[in-house]
Amino acid sequence: MPSAFSYLTSEVDWCEGNFEHSEVIAEYYNTISNVSFFLLFPILLYLNHQYVQQRPLSSYSLSIMFLLIGIFSTYYHLTLSYVGQLLDELSILWTLALTYTVWIPKCYFPGFIKGRTQFVCLVGIATIVFTLMSFIEPAFNAYLLNSISLHLLYLTYQELKKCSNPRVHRTAAFMVMWWVLAISCWLSDKWFCGFWQRIDFCYLHSFWHVLISIAVLYCCPLFIYFDSQYEIPAFEPELEYWPSDSWPIALPYLALRTPYKCC
Questions:
Q1: Integer Cα distance of 67 and 72 in angstroms
Q2: H/E run at residue 255
Q3: How far is 238 from 253, CA to CA, in rounded Å?
Q4: pLDDT score recorded for residue 263
Q5: 8 A C-beta contact, residue 241 and residue 247
Q6: Using CA atoms, how far apart are residues 244 and 189, in angstroms rounded to an integer?
Q7: What are the CB-based long-range contacts (under 8 Å, 24+) for 29-34?
Q8: pLDDT over 90 for what percent of the chain?
Q9: Other Cβ atoms within 10 Å of 53 Cβ, number
Q10: What pLDDT digit, counting tens, does each position of 44-62 carry?
Q11: 137, burial (CB in 10 Å: exposed 0-12, middle 13-18, buried 19+)
């Protein structure tokens, strides 16, 4: 019986052919495209440095999780091992769980939850349960993760209804656009692999890695904007764009302004 660390022991094999470009890398393009995850945390920390100064624990914790996603996804696609698959999916699950615990406003807590400490415990218990379930049915985990992202989109919509700032709506629109493109590539690679193999274009999962990373670059400033409104009332949050507001596609980041007070 092969070890769970052995090559090609994963229950999921993506559309890209195995060992076509390297004798040691199972899925070449799906592996190298993970470089986008390694770029996430330095970009987010640099652009949103004012928020990082105010909320260092949540900022650095999520940055470490993004780094782990990149490491484990690289290992998974390099080996297509069972352990690699679990580490890849569980790192995403725990990143989403951490996102819930630090960024979800208290107004969205269930009615029986009295504070953030109880909410953290609830999310922790649910995450442990889903983690144990992933060992029973690993393939189900991927669909669970995408379902959680739908709930985050719903919460974003609820916050947008309270907000009239056009920059916030612009950032949300770009986030949804990149997310739709990303999830379309993921689903198409999984469900229509035969078609893509016939036309010799089996790279959509690698596109997913890049596109979902771009979506996160829009998602994180949006969520920290909402978080700042609730948790950092001493400042007025404002979304800016790098390198310039005038560019049709630019990276959003959070600027914290000190409110002007009249004497």
A1: 9
A2: strand 251-257
A3: 8
A4: 44
A5: yes
A6: 35
A7: 29/203, 29/206, 30/77, 30/205, 30/206, 30/209, 31/74, 31/77, 31/78, 32/206, 33/206, 33/207, 33/209, 33/210, 34/70, 34/73, 34/74, 34/77, 34/209
A8: 81
A9: 10
A10: 999 999 999 999 999 999 9
A11: exposed
Handedness of CA 133, 134, 136, 139 (dihedral sign): positive
- Cβ neighbours of residue 31 under 8 Å, at least 6 residues apart? 25, 74, 77, 78
**Contacts of residue 52, Cβ cutoff 8 Å, sequence gap at least 6:** 45, 59, 60
How many whole angstroms separate alpha carbon 239 and alpha carbon 110? 29
Asked whether the beta carbons of 26 and 19 are under 8 A apart, the reply is: yes
Identity at 79, one-letter amino acid code = T
Per-residue confidence band for 18, with pLDDT thresholds at 50, 70 and 90: very high
Maximum distance among all alpha carbons in the chain?
77
Count the helix, strand and coil residues of the chain and give each as a percent rounded to the nearest 5: 65, 5, 25
pTM higher than 0.90: yes
Residue type, 151: H
Average pLDDT over residues 220-234: 94
Torsion of CA 78, 89, 185, 183, to 10 degrees: -160
For residue 257, the SS3 value is: strand
Buried/exposed code over 224-246 (b: 16+ C-beta within 10 A; e: otherwise):
bbbbbbebbeebebebebeeeee
Q: What is the end-to-end Cα distance of the chain in Å, rounded?
A: 77
* 99-109 mean pLDDT: 93
218 vs 245, higher pLDDT: 218
